Structures are given as structure tokens and as C-alpha cells.
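Re: that chain you flagged

S.,

Sorry for the slow reply, it's been a week of failed gels. I finally had a moment to sit down with the sequence you sent. For the record, here it is as I used it:
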Amino acid sequence: MSALLEVDELEVAYGASQVLFGLSFCVKAGEVATLLGRNGMGKTTTLRAILGLTPALRGTVRFRGERIDHCSPDRIARMGLALVPEGRQIFPNLSVKENLVAFAANRSGTANPWCLDGVFELFPRLAERTRHMGNQLSGGEQQMLAIGRALMTNPHLLILDEATEGLAPLVREDIWHCLDKLRARGQTILVIDKYVQRLIRLANQHTIIERGQVVWQGDSTQLAADPAIWQRYIGV
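Prediction finished late last night. Pasting the C-alpha cells below so you have them in one place:
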């Protein structure tokens, strides 16, 4: 598999405070990858740099072979990179259907693009609440809507930032089951989450960061075999 996203020697700072120090990892086309680490270790800053929201001091970010570290966020999105943000950030005064169609596009040029019927098949609860406003949904339903909204852009790469945070266990499992289906469909995904045992079952490759640096990289077999790594760097 070729690399869809390549982050190489990335350094980022907020004013005089440097956060990332030579961060490097890649996400291959068709795989599920994770970015792991405790809160405050640089995961969100890494995402912001990838998405063009925070400029890099040094290093490069390439998406589909093209450098994007100096591109605007809207151009990066149009290239086929979609984010399911922490906190969901759906439009509270739009209906479920309106949220889904607001930015619908076929950015990956797939022959079988996501549409309303496909999203409703993936998330039957949303089909039952088509006319409900965003602020009338439960937290789990809002998360489903945020994922569905991102899928409606038909991205090359789907990024999920803490997609199961704050959800009830049964709803959280619904989200994991959805991600299993997306993986089976061949969707390339980068996941930031803390549930390592579930991520081991879902993902192919893992990158752990500590204080803005990569401290461990490997596949699910390697991560499962070394729980001490979890305790040391993730705190589970």
C-alpha cells in the first residue's frame, strides 16, 4: 500500500512554546491507523498542522503525494481529507438531513459514493430522526451525524478525533461497529482515541507520541504483546 498521508519531521510551536519536535508518521491507503498518547502530548496540534489550521515551523505534510503544509484548510478539505472533530460541532439549528447534505461532495471520485441512503443504512437512528434539529439529538446521535456528515464528502482520508469520548458504552460500541464496517469498505482512517484494546482490533498501525515526539510505532500484534507500553505512554 502506498502512503496517503506522510508527516515528516514536523515541528510546530505556539509563539515561544514549541509543541511538536520532529514528528514523523504515515497512513497508508486502505488502512486504519491511530495516533495515541495522553492529553497534552501534541495529538491535537498534530491534527491542526495536518489540516492547515496551525502552521508548521519545519517539516512537511504530504497528502496523496502533494505537499499541503502551506495550504489553506479549505483547499485541504477539498482534496479529500475529512475530520470528525472532538465535540462533534454539528449545526444545532439544521436538521439531520440538512447537516448531511450541507457539504456533500464526491471528493475522492469514487464510483460508489456515500449518499443519504448509505448513511442511513449505516446509522438507522439518523433515518428515524431526519427532520430533528441537531440540538434535539442525544450525544451518541450527534456523533453518528458528525461521522455521516464527513462521509458525505466521500473523503480519501477520514480523521476521527476522540469519536467515542463521553458516550455510553453501548453507543460507543455502535461507533466501533461502524468503523469496522468502514474499514471493510476500504476507507482509510486515522483515529485518535484512548480505548487501546478496541483500537488494537480495529487498526493496522499505531503511533504513540509523548511530549511532541514519536516514542513508539508498530502494528496491532506488537502493541497487544506489550501492555507495558500502554501503561507507560497512554495510561490505560
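What I noticed first: The first strand starts at residue 3 and ends at 14.

Talk soon,
D.
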